[in-house]
Amino acid sequence: MSNKLWGGRFKKKADPLMEQYTSSIDYDKRLAEFDCLGSIAHAEMLAKCRIISRKDSSRIVYGLKSILNEINQGKFIYKKSTEDVHTAIQERLYRKIGRPAAMLHTARSRNDQVTLDTRMYCKKKTEEIANAVTGLKKSMLGFAKKNINVIVPGFTHLQNAQPVLLAHQVLAYCQMLDRDIERLTDCRKRIDVMPLGSCAISGTGLPVDRKFVAKKLGFSKVSLNSMDAVSDRDYVIEMIFALSIIAMHLSRISEDLIILNSPAFGLLDISDQICTGSSMMPHKKNPDVLELVRGKCGEVYGALVSILTVMKGLPLTYNRDMQQDKEPLFRAIDTVRASLDIMALCFKDLKINKDRAGELLQDETLYATDIMEYLVKKGVALKDAHDAVGRMVRYCIDNKLKISEVPLNELRTFNPGFDKGVYNLLDAKKSVSLKDSLGGTSPKQVRRQVLNA
């Protein structure tokens, strides 16, 4: 038996340089488990449909289960000279059971075999990544509950904006993660299509039962067009796209934590466990891990651009270029999974500097919006209220005064609607309690968000 699945047509042996260049065994070996499982279902279907004998099918299944056990125990040897994982398993099966192994590839091609393996792998990994996202979300919720009453300045443009509950900001991250889980779940619907039986391009003239294989392997659907089935990599692109958005979210969250941990802000203290020092400056405590999470986002983006570029000019149906889908897919999955785990560890031991938060909340311009809405409630048009408060803030800046230091008669020069109640607004607890609109930062709304999360 030729060690190639395609060797019969050729007179000359493949050049070693060509074999080395086209080999994918170094990375597609992580599909080995799914290759065995897919082949077991295929062999059982061939016997059910009387395409091969039940005796041969049983020997094939026995051999494949033995190989699967070797793979799971880390005992399977992947030879560098082997073309791909499919060939490696086929060769091992032949050595184990002899001639019946030659019947396994009946009514299939590597074209539909590889996309079956990849879809099975992606189905498993979407679930694993979604679970890791959930794990990070739980870690965030634990931090939010622990600090449910802590108020901090909220920022827009990295400028002081309005007071918010710290838990409210963390719950914003949870909303991002909820969408990530939704995307993975939705993506999984389009991964969950069984392509085996499409063969190389046109299907097969043999009486196969594709629905039987789909049921055996836990697929909810069977592909409806053999040409599309072997050439489709939309599901790979879509999965890497979903992973890219997760990576982007983790990068943004990392940036927030890095900034709030910096001495200039001093609001957060990241655990020593995930920080490093400087080889020259002994006082340094650097959030290197979060910087790497931020940096590795680029790797995931690169994986997405890579697969989009591979696919953009390919004619139907299968082309060898598609071999290049696996490395970016695997890289994106590994990077995002590791980043999710490290972020969960970060929130587990993250600390808030409440004293520093109190200092920053002394900036009374944080309450300017509350004062504006206070005038609106008195019947002042929003534009007029906005102008009046803007002029009042400018006056305080020019005269180095806090709003609380400006006498009421002077405040009334900006708008006659001011009365002594305005001074009660210069308080962080009062400010957040006022934001009771659905989804707002009031304690009542934030507790509702925690329950929903």
Describe the protein's architecture and organization.
With 453 residues, this protein is mostly helical. It has 18 helices and 6 strands. The chain folds into 3 domains: 7-106, Fumarase/aspartase (N-terminal domain) (Fumarase C, Chain B, domain 1), CATH 1.10.275.10; 111-154 and 163-355, Up-down Bundle (Fumarase C, Chain A, domain 2); 362-452, Ribonucleotide Reductase Protein R1, domain 1. The strands form 3 sheets. It has a two-stranded antiparallel sheet. Strands 3-4 form a two-stranded parallel ribbon. The longest helix has 37 residues, at 110-146. It has helices at 16-22, 25-28, 32-48, 54-72, 85-97, 110-146, 166-191, 210-217, 226-231, 234-261, 288-311, 326-348, 354-360, 368-377, 382-398, 408-414, 428-434, 443-452, and strands at residues 151-156, 159-165, 193-194, 221-222, 268-269, 351-352. The model has no long low-confidence stretch (mean pLDDT 96).
